[in-house]
């Protein structure tokens, strides 16, 4: 394993650049606003207001770039992303926004152009776009419809949240799922009243279908990474947390780096349920930092404790309001959770646990408290998504110093269904982020791409307005929990860096930090709130290198 994680010394050219006449939000308390940046190699050597002082630190050959009053912020950091998975999604047929009939028509077209037996995999359907309402629809069985659309191909259609899927008979058979298969722990194979399969699977049942389909080749992984990276860079994102990496992809990422194409800075979480990753963690493997010229580190363990509200797989303490008798269930039992967290603690890994329902939050916080003990130290263990949280667990989160990781853009999509899913008590405890901030806690923001768009400005907009892209509801959903604009920006910069143990080099603009920054079309701290979602990245700079420039940007 050490050989697979070997790093190469990176030699940076002696590039020197001075950026002048900007409105630069440094996010440094001592100097929050500047107008001049000086870059040597990959680091900032001056941040201030004097071009003469900046020039004194560089050679006469330094390039000068006038910003013309444009806004600069630290490089935006996606606090929870699935970069390779997002790239794979970009290569799939898109289902977002389609009706049920349109989804079926797309599958039929895909089947016509493929050899028999080849898998059809798509992403992004949402039953709330279907005129006939929620699934399963026993009058129009989804399994029969999908079988008719593609009788000769296994079909896997991921719901937008990737916690449930619509599949046909060939996909079920490939995964060994039938009418006699019991529901696996942490998942369901939905059935009609007579026990017939409906073609809708969730949780662990979906994982079995994922394992049955052909896995991406190294070439496909490489193409996926490069496609997703291009998308992120065009949105001003310079790095973030890769929330479920795979050791098997390390050789591919090294190839990308050796070719000079690895630009983003990613801190990766190994996935506790993946074979190679789990074996590495169990075998005493330890974090590895600074790979690929400070562009890639493996410093965390990702655990999934429950599912999602949209698929009714999040684990709640009370019944779903629109499915009496159903509360979801844990994906990871308490004993297994305790074992993984103890290994993470012993081996120096940061732990991050996917928790959405209040029952999942309660269990995870309890086990984390037991594992961390009376002297937890600077662990920065994370709670990913953190959507429905009981008041007593919120207080324990603050006392333990746990870090909520949210995806504010997800609230925009959830507004269409959370009133149906949650009863009044649970809804009152949902998305209550202001309570963490008011108590002095830190929240890191991210996209959860491919579940949501990689566009960070949608996340900033949603956290500030608590409205969807159409401006609904007019006053915002529970507007008392809105972020200030500065808090929203910090959640994608300095707070996100801190939550990844990267604050000494990323997240703000100061001499000695990496020259990672983004030039914007508007100022998120002063523009009308409804325009935050429309902000564009004009220039994205990583380590002093311009990695994205919009046409006519400067």
Low-confidence stretches: 1-12
Helix count, per DSSP? 20
From the alpha carbons, calculate the radius of gyration and give it in angstroms.
24 Å
Terminal CA distance reads: 45 Å
Total number of beta strands: 24
- Average of per-residue pLDDT values: 92
Globally, the shape reads: globular
Strand order of the largest sheet: 8-14-15-17-18-19-20-21
If you had to describe this structure to a student in words, what would you say it looks like?
Helix 8 (250-258) links the parallel strand 14 (237-245) and strand 15 (265-271). Mean pLDDT is 92; it is low at 1-12. Helix 2 packs across helix 7 (218-234), helix 11 packs across helix 12 (358-372) and helix 12 (358-372) packs parallel to helix 13 (391-400). Strands 8-14-15-17-18-19-20-21 form an eight-stranded parallel β-sheet. A six-stranded mixed β-sheet has the order 3-2-7-22-23-24, with helices on one face. By secondary structure, it is of the alpha/beta class. The longest helix is centred in the middle third of the chain and has 17 residues, at 218-234.
